[in-house]
Design goal:
This protein is an alpha+beta fold and 256 residues long. It folds into two domains: 23-117; 129-249, VC0802-like. Helices cover 27% and strands 27% of the residues. It contains six helices and 14 strands. The strands form four sheets. Strands 12-13-11-7-14 form a five-stranded mixed sheet, covered by helices on one side. A four-stranded antiparallel sheet has the order 1-2-5-6. A three-stranded antiparallel sheet has the order 8-10-9, with no helix packed on it. Strand 9 (159-162) and strand 10 (167-172) form a beta hairpin. The protein is globular. It starts with a helix and ends in a 7-residue tail after the last strand. Residues 1-24 and 112-124 have low confidence and may be disordered.
Length: 256
């Protein structure tokens, strides 16, 4: 009994020392995908082990609103002696607040096949060039019998569509008069055409990576090309996904 009594304070002191020396990743903003991935790996390694997390690299991050979702990559046998990521299974996933880097969720989740396919460009998909038009855009709906406002016709890109059900307007946000309000702001991505009518799959190739990752879009086709509008809060994630799918952001674009 005396020996146990002597050992207890030593064990207690050791436990206290270990707790004091344990370091945890400090909260810090995650302004971009690189910072989000670094933050995710920092919290995953102590839980799942360095070897496991390294085996799931590369990690990818998508931004939805103010929350980063960071996923690992699957590496499965391809039946030919190599590895493939075109498979189903569990990988690490972390949700991180962009503003302060706080961990909102951490665990192991399954990646769908659709999400995996969005990360690569199949050989039959087209690789397109695109650029971002300057400024932000607004999408409005007026009654079908409304007159077209003069301010809706000005700017590098506008779209006016009248149907039996509505008058749909797309124009630069800066065009809106003081008495017209819209809570939503969009960026506008222009595909570099022209594309002949006989060329199929152009728009599908461009929007598929966005759709597979739950990024909303508003697409408009013209005689020469296509325009794809994306909510402002998804701008960085959308461009990253498009690049990963093999599409090229033109140097004339405004930085995102």
């Amino acid at each position: 009994m005396r020996i146990h009594a002597l050992l207890s304070p030593v064990l207690l002191l050791t436990t206290v020392a270990l707790c004091q020396n344990t370091t945890r990743p400090k909260h810090a903003p995650a302004p971009d995908s690189e910072a989000a991935i670094a933050r995710a790996e920092a919290v995953l390694i102590p839980v799942y082990g360095k070897k496991q997390i390294e085996s799931e690299r590369p990690f990818t991050a998508t931004l939805k609103g103010d929350v980063w979702t960071v996923w690992g990559t699957l590496h499965c046998p391809d039946g030919k002696g190599g590895l493939t990521s075109d498979c189903l299974g569990g990988v690490a996933v972390v949700k991180i607040a962009k503003g302060n880097g706080r961990i909102l969720h951490m665990g192991h989740g399954k990646r769908s096949r659709a999400s995996l396919l969005a990360r690569k460009m199949p050989s039959h998909r087209r690789q397109l060039k695109f650029h971002r038009l300057p400024g932000l855009y607004t999408i409005l709906r007026l009654t079908p019998d409304a007159s077209v406002p003069a301010w809706a016709t000005k700017g590098e890109f506008t779209s006016i569509t009248r149907t039996a059900d509505e008058l749909s307007l797309v124009c630069p946000t800066g065009n809106l008069p003081a008495d017209v309000h819209s809570p939503h702001r969009w960026i506008c991505l222009k595909l570099e055409g022209p594309f002949p009518f006989s060329q199929t799959g152009v728009l599908l190739s461009f929007i598929e990576p966005l759709s597979n990752n739950e990024i909303p879009i508003f697409a408009i086709s013209t005689y020469d090309t296509d325009y794809v509008l994306v909510p402002e809060e998804y701008a960085a994630s959308a461009v990253e996904l498009l690049r990963e799918a093999g599409h090229a952001l033109s140097s004339v674009s405004k930085p995102i």
